[in-house]
Amino acid sequence: LLFFFLFQGSMNAPVVSRKLSTSMIVFAACVLGLGFGLFGINYWHATKCSSDRSPDEIEDMVIALKNRLLESESKVLKNEIMMNKLIASMQANLYKLERIEYNELSLRANNEAVEIALLLAAHPAPPMPVFPLDSQYENAESLANAIDDLFSKDNPVDLDYYAAGNGDKNGKDPSEGFFMDGGQDAVGETAPAITDTEAVATCTEWKTKYNVIVGASWGDLPYDLQQKWLEYSCDYHM
């Protein structure tokens, strides 16, 4: 548009003004060329200055970086394998050293134990402890009588009472130590009601008659006979 107006003005202007218009056209052309140049430089900077390498060069660089990364990973893997081998070797050597030290300590301990045993064998045994007693207690029977007298001070025992057949052989009164429900002596021993031969015969009869399974079932055995079964130790005899 600038050239168009300048050209129209130069055609309608006189000769002197036409010369001025020509110089203005040249100046405008220079300005326009400078503008195109600046635009081109800006475009080049916008598109090309971000990377001064060609796509092929960039691709080669990426491939080179991948190769370097692969090589680094390979070196790391090799170093890891070498370190594992080194650690395993150190552990094996450490186990050998520990075993040697253990054997040495064990041998020293055995030697010291043998030396102590030989030293003890070479010397007489220490004297047994002696607990001196009063002369009146040197006799065991006298000592037992003294102990009985000491414990019978609070609860004197009537020997004549038990000598007459009262109480049991352990010195227990029959009225003492009874169960609340059964009336049987909890401490004293009772004589068996029948002999072993009679018990075997009786238990065998009950087992056959009442279908008793020893250690498993009472069968049809009545309750009172069950108590007799226990009293006669029929499980033992069967």
Could you explain how this protein is built, in words?
By secondary structure, this protein is mainly α. It folds into 3 domains: 2-48; 54-122; 141-173 and 192-237, no CATH class. The protein is 66% helix and 0% strand. The protein contains 8 helices and no strands. The chain has helices spanning 2-12, 15-48, 55-122, 140-151, 159-163, 196-209, 223-231, 234-237. The longest helix has 68 residues, at 55-122. The termini are far apart. The model is unreliable at 177-189 (pLDDT under 50).
SSE blueprint:
Layout: H1 2-12, H2 15-48, H3 55-122, H4 140-151, H5 159-163, H6 196-209, H7 223-231, H8 234-237
Distance between the termini: 139 Å
Number of domains: 3
Helix content: 55-70%
Alpha plus pi helix count = 8
Q: Tell me the structural class.
A: mainly alpha
**Rg:** 63 Å
Low-confidence stretches: 177-189
Q: What is the average per-residue confidence, as pLDDT, rounded to a whole number?
A: 76
Give the DSSP E fraction (strand runs of 2 or more residues): under 5%
Summarize the structure.
The chain is mainly alpha-helical. Helices cover 66% and strands 0% of the residues. 3% of the residues are buried.
Properties at a glance:
membrane; 66% helix; mainly alpha; 3 domains; 238 residues; transmembrane helix; transmembrane
